[in-house]
Amino acid sequence: MLENPVTGPAWDLSSEYESVSSSALRADLDSLSIFLDEAETHNRHFTANRDLESAQALTKLREQASTLLSNVGTYAHCLLSVDSQLEDAQKLNGELQSFHKRFGDVFEPLSQFVDDADDTTIAEYLSDPAIEPNAFLVLRSRERAHENLTLAEESLVNGLSQDGIHAWGKLYDQLAGSLTCCVSVGNEEQEMGIAQASALMSSADDHQRKAAWAAINEAWSAHDESTSASLNAISGWRLEMAKQRSRTQDIHFLDAPTHMNRISRSTLDTLLDVAAQAKPLAQKAARLQARAYGKSGFGPWDLRAPAPNLAASGRIAGDTHSAGVSFADSLNLIADAYGQVDGSMADFVRMMAENKWIEGTTGPRKSPGAYCTGFAKSKTPRVYMTYTGGQSDTITLAHELGHAYHSWVMRDLPDSQKSYGMSLAETASTFGETLVRDALLDQAQADQERLNIMWEEMSAFTAFLLNIPARFEFERNLYKARAERPLRPQELKDMMSAAWQTWYGDALSEPDPMFWASKLHFYISGISFYNFPYLFGYLFSLGVYARRESAGDQFFPQYVDLLRDTGRMTAEDIAKKHLDADLTDQTFWLATIATLEHRVSAFEGLLDELGV
After folding, report:
1. For 425, what's the count of Cα atoms within 13 Å in the CB-facing half-sphere?
2. What residue spans of 83-187 are helical by DSSP H?
3. Can you give the residue ranges of every domain in the chain?
4. Are 164 and 156 in contact (CB under 8 A)?
5. Helix, strand, or coil here: 190?
6. Do strands 380-384 and 358-359 pair parallel, antiparallel, or not at all (unpaired)?
7. In whole angstroms, what is the distance from residue 93 CA to residue 415 CA?
8. pTM (2 decimals)?
9. pLDDT tens digits, one per residue of 501-539
10. What contacts 150, CB < 8 A, 6 or more positions away?
């Protein structure tokens, strides 16, 4: 067994449902069926008459049904994240598949009505006080009305997708949750799950990190045909759908993700241009990290390495104890840092732990990664991760608690105004990371402490400005090539390596050719390009953070107002309203990058001071 003296708590989901077979869960599914039945009854009249009364009734039924479907779906997902082989949860997931199909079919006529009706009719539709909060989503949806297929075709697509694109995504999830690898730990080979092996890549030991990386890649390499088939199927499906929807005007594969993220293609282009300009600075940060380890360049197994323990060798002052930070200590650090903005933010962090809304255990069947989700009925968030006591785990926890806080301050809003694009979703999470790092740096006294904290800052900078753009580069090139034909595993490896080389250059000793297989984000069937929103969120959040000092006591209410607007405005409109910034212009982004230059210089100065 892998020894793991430091771990996090298990979450408690019983406040939602006691079990998969609980009467409360069954009652919600029964109610969901009733709502869908009622919607079908309305549809028989609505499809023939397209009357406003039926449209408004269907909208209310959709919101009620969506709440229940989301709630049960979240529960199943939470269970399977902790134990991917939990049979009852797998069965529930399969049961929900039919509900998702039926939901899509039942409410597609309403979606097409909202997109196709004239402006006068839509104004009347939105005049109902219960539906008026939907205005932003309705008008956004109408911008893509030209992509709609016929009602029969949309129903067919919805039905086929369950055993098509979504099935490929679920296959990957099941594989990732059940895959094991053999890692050399100390003097013995240990078999463990991918999530556990991934945690070892945060080890302070060079050989341990490389051994874990090699074992993970070896495990995925044994399934490169399966993973390449999944990736080809998912990307191929999206390309075909874009082709089918291009009947009145051409649809690009980036149109859907930018629209979903509520940014324009112009904003995305500007963002990537600025990232390219910042590449030398980000590469410098990466080389400085390698220098701290006595290397000319990092290997891909080093990208999650903690700061080197120079105190242990007696080279600098600091704590030589290498044991991980307990979860309780980590949580208190985060709460104190959040509390520097406002005491209510610290209270929120502690409430999350007290209510057992955080999952941080380790386990052989746990899915890798971290996320924040929420239950629609109770309007409460949940945080998922594998906590092993590394400093990067503290930052991850701070990140996910930022997501949770974002949803918490929006909990009283209408359901239609709680959904926001991923680009804006990263605002509070990255803000939380920065808060924690800066608070820790202010408190640091010993050299090793300063090194540890500034190290995490450089890790974030290189991850967002190099790793994320490399992922985007790979995915964009994948879609371009996949338009011609499916790609073989070796081609995907070469494409991934080229993307790493483009962005990391000589700051990395070698690429990570299997990253396309090991990175879950490429296989999320409901979302494509799950990468550039992180870059957007990182820089946008730092732009918000930079205004904290000048705003003084007004910052916290302004910050909460900004977060609450994320579900009812585009990113460009939010930036204009709250920051007086134009996101399609490089000025805002370059000013944010400029705030990072002194951080890189400070890290270099610290290494010089320490003689590293």
Report:
1. 20
2. 87-116, 119-125, 135-142, 151-162, 165-178
3. 23-161
4. no
5. strand
6. parallel
7. 23
8. 0.85
9. 999 999 999 999 999 999 999 999 999 999 999 999 999
10. none
